[in-house]
Amino acid sequence: MTVVQAKLMGMEPHHPERSEIELPAVLHALSDPHRLEIVRRLNEDDEPRPCGKFGFDISKSTMTHHFRTLREAGVIRQERQGTTKMTELRREDLDARFPGLLDAVLSSKTVHV
Amino acid sequence: MTVVQAKLMGMEPHHPERSEIELPAVLHALSDPHRLEIVRRLNEDDEPRPCGKFGFDISKSTMTHHFRTLREAGVIRQERQGTTKMTELRREDLDARFPGLLDAVLSSKTVHV
Questions:
Q1: Per DSSP, what are the bridge partners of residue B49?
Q2: Distance between CA B73 and CA A7 in Å, rounded?
Q3: Which of the listed residues A32, A113, B6, B63 has the most CB atoms within 10 Å of its CB?
């Protein structure tokens, strides 16, 4: 099956193109302490992280909701690998679209989960 | 009536102290195109602006909701003057608390209302 066919069948998660990433959606995606912490951890990673490896004490369905919110806003990229999804920050896209935003958000010390 | 008495009677709107302003709440407050535009206009003002002078084509109750969301997050300050509320951006508080955030948000060209 090609990637296009997989997408058509809804098996590949949707990601907005860089030009489609909108500021209100990004700010909304970042407006939750857990989602901020996900972004903070991904920012420290050199490689994509499996979606189950964040260690928060919240339900899987809530985590899925957080990942979807971040992905649909264009903040993260998720790719299926077998039975898991590998997650990475769209740092380059965000920096190109909203210069300085992610640095300002990540340098804030006021987030605790 | 003193300001303290007015506050006790709930007549003065609540504003968080600078130290109480939290990043998720600020990002949420900024995650709406109309609220972003309010902040953008206030940022260009030299003096507080009457809350009725924004000229959006949306209902008064929706505007009130937007102002309350911004105020409770610590993004704007509102003070009653007679029958109106004067509104100003808490630029100094936000810059002290989250350096660079407001500049990054306001420099984005992707907001349209």
A1: B87
A2: 39
A3: A32
**Which residues, 6 or more positions from B40, have their beta carbon under 8 angstroms from its beta carbon?**
B106, B111
Interface test with B, best of A105, A106, A111, A113 (most B CBs within 10 A): A105
Entry pTM: 0.86
- The Cα–Cα gap between A38 and A30 comes to 10
ipTM here = 0.85
Tens digits of per-residue pLDDT, B58-109?
999 999 999 999 999 999 999 988 888 899 999 999 999 999 999 999 998 6
Other CB atoms within 10 Å distance of the CB of residue A17: 8
The token pair at A4 is 């296009």
pLDDT tens digits, A24-39:
999 999 999 999 999 9
Q: Tell me if B27 and A107 make a contact (CB, 8 A cut-off).
A: no
A33/B7 Cα distance (integer angstroms): 30
Q: Which value, to the nearest 10 degrees, does the dihedral of the CA atoms of residues B30, B35, B36, B39 take?
A: -100
End-to-end Cα distance, chain B = 40
Nearest chain A residue (CA) to B104: A101
Q: What tokens does B3 get?
A: 């300001």
Verify whether the Cβ–Cβ distance A31 to B27 is below 8 Å. yes
